[in-house]
Amino acid sequence: MTATLPAPEQAPARPAHRDGNVLRWLGAYTASMIGDSVYYMALAWAAARTGSASQTGLVLAAGSIPRAVLLLGGGVLADRLGPRRVVVGSDTARCLVILGLAGTLLLTSPTVWMLIAVALVFGAVDALFLPAVGALPPRITTASQLARVQGMRGLATRTANVVGAPLGGVAVALGGPVLAFAAAGVLFAVSLPLLLAVRMGALLAPETAAPTGTAWSELADGLRHIRRHPLLGPLMLVVAVSELGFVGPLNLGLILLSDERGWGASGMGWVVAAFGIGAGASALLLAVRGRVARAGLVMCLTVLVGSFAIAALAYVPSVPLAATVAVLVGLFAGLGGSLCGALAQTVTDPAYLGRVTSVSTLFTHALAPLSYPVTGAAVALWGTGPVFVASAALCVAGAGTGLLMAPLRRAELPR
After folding, report:
1. Is residue 140 within 8 Å of residue 21, measured between CB atoms?
2. Nearest to residue 91, comparing CAs of 49, 143, 39?
3. What domains does the chain contain, in order, with CATH numbers?
4. Residue 296 belongs to what H/E stretch?
5. Which of 90, 125, 315, 384 has the fewest CB atoms in 10 Å of its CB?
6. pLDDT tens-place string over residues 377-399
7. pTM value?
8. Cα dist. 289→29, 90, 151, 285, 310 in Å?
9. CB 95, CB 126: distance < 8 Å
């Protein structure tokens, strides 16, 4: 007689908020994002004190050029070398560049061309860092925890926004740009040992499926993977269209709306803070809950509700009402964005994680900000109301596209 032993039950996945590996990654990501905020504050202050208003704008815009041009290549590199290696290398480069600038400013005064050069280098390194850091979560936790990790990442981003700017302001007030740049460099340095301590999952190690062709062929292969995938293609389309609708009103549009209504800087600050509260609440909800049933449908519906809230924002008569609507925008847009990220990471083949992340990041960090000049010109011609409504219509188009595509509408996150 032979006895068949029962198969051992699979151990339940450790919740991401109790997983030391995830928490080390989250700590490194948070320190790096705060360093980013401090760096941009120091760069803006140094540029404003060194050159004219137009030269300041040139310095601040310089970093976006290499970031947009090299971002897709950064995704290829993350898949070829592994995202952890690229994240560690790019964070090290950022640390050395910014600390080097701080040391240089101890010996000489900044010039516009010096700041432009630093911004260009920093933007190029960012093009490597962003796809790699976005591709790491599926390699350090299980698929069932990716939604929770996206929520935790959203909380880290909001924390960086709240802490980074005041910290940069204090550093500038106490020691000028030198101290602020030094503080940013130290924060990048703090993230490095945490990143080095992050363990990669054995089944998703970069060596198992490293690309072997040329960079161009690997990029083309990644784009084909997205186009042919039943879920990734629709997801990227929703991201592209919705981001173009959201980013203009939520950045430049709020400034112009506050000026048009006479709310002043304090009024705009309350509205922006309310949006941050809503986005933080959505991130906290996802971090605690860990999973949302019928994630594809919920994602499309939350983007749809957020679209109507954007249109309403231009017609509320007072700051308290505008802040209330902004909470709704942050809540629904934030939840939709986090679910989109979780779905994309869940369904992407590990070999393509860097390239898929680079495409979504291209839409959110590089191409969408190009709508700022269009938004400003449109507001000058027609006012804030029609422009906010047109932007909301674009968001509705993105959500509607997702609802019409059955694979996305029926998409679920792993249990």
Report:
1. yes
2. 39
3. 16-143+157-201 (1.20.1250.20), 226-409 (1.20.1250.20)
4. helix 295-313
5. 315
6. 888 888 888 989 999 999 999 99
7. 0.85
8. 21, 33, 9, 6, 26
9. no
